[in-house]
Amino acid sequence: MRQLAWRALYEVLAARVQRPEWAFMNYGYLVQPPADGPPLDAADEPDRLCIQLYDHVLTGTDLRGADVLEVGCGRGGGASFIARYRAPRTTIGLDLSRRAIALCRRYRRAPGLSFVQGDALALPFPDGAFDAVVNVESSHCYSSMDDFLAEVHRVLRPGGSLLFADLRPAREMAALRRGLGEGPLELVELHDITAHVRGALDIDDDRRRALMEAWIPRRFHRAFEPFAGFRGTATFARLERREIQYVSARLVKAGASEAA
Predict the structure, then answer these.
(1) Is domain 2-252 in CATH 3.40.50.150, yes or no?
(2) From the CB of residue 234, how many other CB atoms can be counted at a distance below 10 Å?
(3) Is 186 helix (H, G, I), strand (E, B) or coil?
(4) 144 and 128 Cβ atoms separated by less than 8 Å
(5) What is the rounded distance in angstroms from the CA atom of residue 99 to the CA atom of residue 14?
(6) Which residues does the UniProt record annotate as the domain Methyltransferase type (predicted)?
(7) Are 58 and 86 in contact (CB under 8 A)?
(8) How far is the C-alpha of 46 from the C-alpha of 204, rounded, in Å?
(9) Which of 8, 62, 112, 184 is most solvent-facing, going by the fewest CB within 10 Å?
């Protein structure tokens, strides 16, 4: 039921707001000092904070010449960033939302980039198809983390990486950490990045509210505000009080890397 509810929400957003400028849906990552952030093309600067979350997740993993899968690609901004800035051989963005995938195919263009509609718990790819799987702010929608991790393990090549970031209520964080640490992949790094994410939401609040006013039909505003984590919402307050926490992780499939 959780997965169906999230799918319905993202289908509505993709159908109602087809603006190509809306490329990212994550909460962002604040780098301090700002000069430490990645260099970006001018066209990507408005999305800097969202891109910095991807940059943080990818840090330490060389994707040059790799085959990369993003599970839960949303509106395609992250997969496009990977394809354009990290020089993989191929990048596939997968999402459960049919309309989101249609939007990605319409607007996201980069060498080796493509998009597939599919389920994170039943990935439509053969065993050992990828050198890296990226999963950013998506897994909280899944009905089973165990099934997701098993599928990631299946589609990764030996030595391949799962590059992960997501949030959970504090009461669920121990279970997430345990699942990552005891699953089929080896947990190499785990970081609490709650402060960086809350900081990004804080400094980006005015811009994101202006985009809501411009892009989201007014009758949806009340429902959209907590989803977006605006200041003054329960979501933002719970991040401040650490009742919601955000982590990033890198996990590796055992065996020698077969990346090109």
Answers:
(1) yes
(2) 12
(3) strand
(4) no
(5) 6
(6) 69-164
(7) yes
(8) 10
(9) 8
